[in-house]
DNA sequence: CGCCTGTTTGATCTACCTCAACTGCTGTGG
DNA sequence: CCACAGCAGTTGAGGTAGATCAAACAGGCG
C-alpha cells in the first residue's frame, strides 16, 4: 500500500537457524553446525499474505527457499483460465528450482506464510559447496516426485468421491503425524483450503466438491462443525473410499 | 519358460561405458573418466521383452538403472484394476529410487528394452562417493518433477482432444529433438504406444482416444498411414489445440 | 443492518464412459 | 494360396458422472 522504495516485509537476521522450527526437516536438516553458519548469513525471512503470489509462472526466479510456516499452493494455468494445483506445500517444504531461471508454475500463499529465502545464485553456490545440502534436496525432490505421481493417479482415474476422501485423508495423516498420534474416530482436522482451492487441487468444480462433502457428512463419515474444521467420524471408511493408493493401515488406531 | 536357477537374460561386461549411446545424457553424463571406471565395473545390462514387468509396485527394488534403448512405462493401479500411467521413460532416463527399498509403481517395458543396471546398495555407495553422479541425478529428478507437474495439469483440466494433442506434440518434440530438427508440416512421428497405453497415459478410455485420432485426422491435422506412424500435417494447429502448457514456439519451423 | 464473499443446493447439459458390434491386420495351418 | 482365428482398432448407441448455469443461504464485517 506504501509506494516507498523496497518491499517493507523483510525481516532480516533476527532469528538464528539453531532455533528454527523446521531445522530438522527442511533442506538444511543434514547440514552441520559449521555449514549452518553460511546458511544463516545468507538467509532472509519474508512474509506473505493469504492470496499473495510468491512466484509467477514464466517469471525469472530471484530466490529459492523453505516454507517456515503456512501453506503454499503451486498452480499451473491454461490460457482460458482453467487452473490445476500441482503442489501443496507445508512447513519445511522447499520452493524453487536451482539451475533453472524461469518458474514452471505460480506459487501462491493460501494462509499467512513465512519463508526462509536465499538468492538463487547464492543458494547455488552453497549447494555446490555443501554435500549435505545437496543430498537432502535430492531426497526431498524424490519424495515430491513420488507424491506427484500418486496425485496423477488420483487426477486421472479416481471418482469425485474418491478424490475428496483422498484429500481429507492426506490432511488427516499430516495432522496425525504432527502430533505423533495415530488417526482415530472423532479426530479433528484443520482444513486450510477453501472449496475453490480444494477443487483446483482435485481437478473438480467447487459445486462437485461441496456435494461430496455433504454426501460424506450425511453418510456419517464426517462432521463439519465449521468451514475450516473437519471431524473424522470414521477414518477407516474414509481410507476405504480413498481407494488404497497410499493406504497404510499402520497409521490407523486399530487397538 | 525355463525353470533353471538364475535369469538367463544377463549380458555382462561386454560393452564399455565409453562407447555407450546414452553416455552424455544419462545419470552418468557428468562423471569423469576416473569415476566411469567404477560405474563400468558395477554395471550390468539386462534386456526386457515388450510387456515384461521390470519392477512391481510394492516390491523390494534390488536394482536401479538407466534405459539404454526402448520405452518403459510407469504405472500406478487401483485395486479394481483402474490404471494410470505416471511416467514414460525413453533412452537415458533413470529408473529407481536410491534410499527407498519399495517401488512406488510398476515399471513395464512397452517395446524391447535394454537397461544398464546397478545393484541398489552398490549404486548408493557410488552415489555417496561421486559428487557428479549425485548432481546429475538431482537435475534429472527435478526435470521429471516438472514434467509430472505439467502432466497433472493435463490430467486434471484438459479435454480429451487437448490431451491427445499434447501427447502427440510430446512425441513430435522428442523425435524433432533427436534429429536436431524443428517440427515441420509433414514430419513423420513414430508412436510406440498402443491405444490402450495412450489411454492409460492420458486418463481416458481406448474408445475416446480412437475417436480423437479420427477427429484430428478428418480435420486434416494428422495422417495415420499405419498403426505406429503419425504424420503431422499441421503442427502449429496441434500446438494450439494442446493448450500451450509446454508451448514453445521456438521448436516450430517458422521460417 | 446490509453488503460481500464463500458455500450449498437445485435443474439441466454434455463430454466422456460403457457396452456392443464391426473392421481390418497378421499370422497360421490346411 | 486361401480360410479363419485372434487381436488392435474403429464406429455406433445410449447412459452417467460431473460440469454448467442459476438461485438461495450463511457468516463475517464495515
Characterization of the model:
The structure is a homodimer. Helices cover about 35% and strands about 20% of the residues of chain A. Chain A is globular, with a radius of gyration of 19 Å. Chain A is of the alpha+beta class and about 260 residues long. In chain A, helix 4 packs across helix 7 and helix 5 (about 195-200) packs across helix 6. In chain A, a hairpin with a 2-residue loop joins strand 11 (about 220-225) and strand 12. In chain A, the strands form three sheets. The first copy, chain A, has a five-stranded antiparallel β-sheet with strand order 1-2-9-4-7. Chain A contains seven helices and twelve strands. Chains A and B meet through strand 6 and helix 3 of A and strand 6 and helix 3 of B. Chain B binds a DNA duplex (30 and 30 nucleotides) through helix 6.
N-to-C terminal Cα separation of chain A, in Å? 55 Å
- How many H/I helical runs of chain A? 7
Sketch the major β-sheet of chain A.
Answer: 5 strands, antiparallel
Q: Which oligomeric form is depicted?
A: homodimer
Integer average pLDDT of chain A: 90
Structural class from helices and strands of chain A? alpha+beta
Shape of chain A: globular
Helix content class of chain A: 25-40%
Summarize the entry for a quick read.
The structure is a homodimer of 255-residue chains. Chain A has 255 residues and is an alpha+beta fold. In chain A, 37% of the residues lie in helices and 22% in strands.
